Amino acid sequence: MNQYKDFIIMLEKILGKDNVKIDEPMKKHTSFRVGGPVDILVTPESYDQVREVVEVSKKNNVPLLILGNGSNLLVRDGGVRGIIMKLCKLDDIKVEGNKIIAQSGALLSKVSNIAAQNCLAGFEFASGIPGSVGGALTMNAGAYNGEISQVIESAYVLNNNGEFKKLTKEELELGYRMSSIIKYGYTVVEAVFNLNNGEQEKIYGRIQDLSQRRRDKQPLEYPSAGSTFKRPEGHFAAKLIEDSGLKGANVGDAEVSKKHSGFIINKGNATAKDIIKLIEMVQKTVREKYDIDLHTEVMIVGEDN
User: Fold this and answer.
1) Which CATH class is domain 219-301?
2) Which of 227, 244, 257, 261 is catalytic?
3) Does the annotation mark 177 as catalytic?
4) What is the CA radius of gyration of the chain?
5) CATH number belonging to domain 93-203
6) Residue 199 designated active-site
7) Where along the chain do its domains lie?
8) Which of 52, 147, 255, 297 is catalytic?
9) What mean pLDDT do residues 225-232 have?
10) Which of 5, 221, 241, 282 has the most CB atoms within 10 Å of its CB?
């Protein structure tokens, strides 16, 4: 950590000591509850601090990773070198007419709830997605026939020149688990959602219905990162996995969920290595049986032990 001594002092000047953590275990910050430590974890409280962290990281050649709610991330057991910037403290949500303006660290469940409180329909699909606005926009997250591209109007991002820029829906280039944010390495700080006026009772009813369907079909009682694999064109990953006889397959405490084979879960003491071995085993079996490549929806970062 000595190589970062001066860099840490700079970060503490920008963010304050409370917002800079050293050797922070990433299992505290990911929904899989696994992963080694990151050298430095920072939690900015303003857009200017986000920009300054990005600038100082570039100037000092320190690798930087942006983190939302950690619900789509698997960190290897050796941890992450460099710095992770977690945007959880940028979580303000405002309502203006039928628009919701949400900062990138705001949880989708909270946005959905505020939409319902204000009789705004269209965001119910996201009520049970355990991610943040920034992460959801980056991946064009979706569930139950809804996705972010259907409700987004614009986003405010930090580009690679250190400038804040408004991106229209078209400029976001949203596709299946894809966006211009990934393509160009932008950092989302804010999003504007355009919703429809609706009846509050119906909105809450739909949220409750989707919530019940999730409880019935998904292994929510175990740590996971949601759907482990992207949907291959013309197929469903969960069906391919189940038809390959892999439901309940395990490596250590990592298991292909018996409740929903699209989920790999942590039964308690899984390591990242266990989870990655199981992912590779599933990919190999499905490829051999169906000649179909399964690509992970989960982002895997860091180093092995």
Assistant:
1) alpha beta
2) 227
3) yes
4) 20
5) 3.30.465.10
6) no
7) 2-86, 93-203, 219-301
8) 297
9) 93
10) 241
